[in-house]
Write a structure and sequence with these properties.
Order of helices and strands: EEEHHEEEHEHEEEEEHHHHEHEH
Strand content: 25-35%
Number of strands: 14
CATH topology of the largest domain: Nucleotidyltransferase, domain 5
Largest sheet: 5 strands, mixed
Shape: globular
Number of domains: 2
Length: about 280
């Protein structure tokens, strides 16, 4: 049975796993991500593979990684802001050092592959995956495969109170705090904001209605551009979905929106999906 070495590289931890064609995780290792130095970062990624799977050349057909940054078609990463490194030749470095083909995609894209191939909505012909956390990321799949696009959905410009803002700067987890600030309300986090909404705080409710409008306008815009059969949502903000989900659904008539169904291993499993797709 063929296997893939999957990497899920984050700003805090890097996870590596050996995953088979049934998408079963056979081995897994988690290590702190080395930040701030490109050479040390690259060496650490190769080293975690060598430590987790000493006989990796016999075990795997390729390496596939999901990373929190913009990736070129050849696996070159422009920057990883949370890791404080840029101009990162990850795929070519790992191929040269480890001797296996290496494929790299943005972490939202590999999570979308997990959802589109293994999640509850895997039978949908097309799926648009959106994560709303510190920022906003998205990816479009048709038939379980990514549709390549340079469109970074979180950076879409939206008007608010006579000014133009990037969508994620107003609607993401950190953006909600900015939205509140612009309306004279101080909150420390999205979680605290939705707690105020749940308790019917008058000022929070006014901001909440603006946030729902921003979210629904955004969803309608993406729907007009891509017309997916289903949208699936995840991310830190959606931990508070019990507060806002019904209102968001009601604000998007005729558009199917759902909560993601995959597990916390979606980054690893999605990377494996991408690896198998690219290797065959």
């Amino acid at each position: 049975m063929d296997k893939v070495i999957a990497l899920d590289i984050g700003g805090t931890n890097t996870r590596v796993a050996l995953i088979n064609e049934k998408y079963e995780i056979e081995k897994i290792l988690i290590k702190p991500t080395e930040v701030g130095n490109l050479d040390i970062f690259l060496d650490s990624i190769a080293s975690i593979v060598e430590e987790a799977i000493p006989d990796y050349k016999k075990q795997a057909i390729c390496i596939a990684a999901g990373v929190p940054g913009r990736v070129r078609h050849d696996g070159y990463i422009y920057a990883l802001p949370n890791v404080h490194v840029e101009h990162i030749p990850l795929a070519s470095y790992l191929e040269k050092r480890l001797g296996l083909p290496c494929y790299v995609r943005n972490d939202a894209e590999v999570a979308a592959l997990s959802e589109a191939n293994l999640g509850e909505y895997k039978n949908a012909k097309s799926l648009y995956f959106i994560t709303v956390s510190t920022g906003v990321g998205g990816a479009f799949t048709i038939g379980g495969k990514l549709v390549n696009s340079s469109y970074e959905v979180g950076h879409t410009m939206f008007p608010y109170q006579g000014e133009i803002h990037e969508f994620e700067h107003m609607a993401s987890g950190t953006g909600i705090s900015r939205l509140c600030d612009k309306n004279g309300l101080s909150v420390s986090s999205a979680k605290d904001f939705f707690a105020l909404v749940e308790n019917k705080h008058p000022e929070a409710l006014r901001v909440y209605h603006d946030w729902i409008k921003l979210m629904s306008d955004f969803i309608k815009m993406v729907n007009d551009a891509f017309s997916p059969e289903v949208f699936t949502f995840t991310g830190g903000v959606f931990k508070s979905a019990d507060v806002f989900w019904d209102d968001l659904v009601a604000a998007c008539p005729g558009i199917r929106i759902e909560k993601c169904s995959f597990s916390q291993e979606a980054g690893l499993v999605g990377a494996a999906v991408y690896g198998f797709q690219m290797a065959k």
